[in-house]
Amino acid sequence: MAAAPVAAEPISVGVIANLTGTDVRTSVNMTRGIEMAVADINEAGGIDGNPITLITEDSEYRLQEAMNAANKLYGVDNVEVAIMFGGSSLMIPVANLAQDKGRVLINTSSSSSKLGDYPGTLFSVLPLDDIIGKKLGEWVAERGHKSAAFVVPNNTFGTGLMNAAADAFVASGGEVLAQVAYTEGNPNYRADMQTVANVEPDAIIAAGYGDDSRTIFKNAQQLDIAAPWYGAYPTIFAIDDEEWMSERFFGVDNGGASLKSTMELAERYRAEYGEEPLSHVFYGYDAMQIVAKAMELGGTSSSEIAASLPEVVKSYEGATGKITWDDRGQRIDPPVEFVEFKDGAFHILGTGE
Amino acid sequence: MTQIFVNSIIYGSQIAIIAIGISLTYSVLRFANFAHIQYAVIGGYATYVFHTAFSVPIVLATAMSMVFTGAFAVLIDRIVFRTIRHVTPEGKMIASWGVALFLRSILAAIFGGSALFFELDTTTIRVGGAIFTTLDVAVVLVTLCAMLAMHVLLRYSRVGVALRALANNFELAEVRGIPSERMILLLWFLSGAYAGLGGTLFAIETQLKPNIDLLILLPVFAAITIGGLGNVYGAVVGAMILSFAQNILISIDFGSLVGAMQWYVPSQFRDAVAVTALVLVLLFRPQGLLKGLGGAKP
Question: What pLDDT does B293 receive?
Answer without folding.
Answer: 39
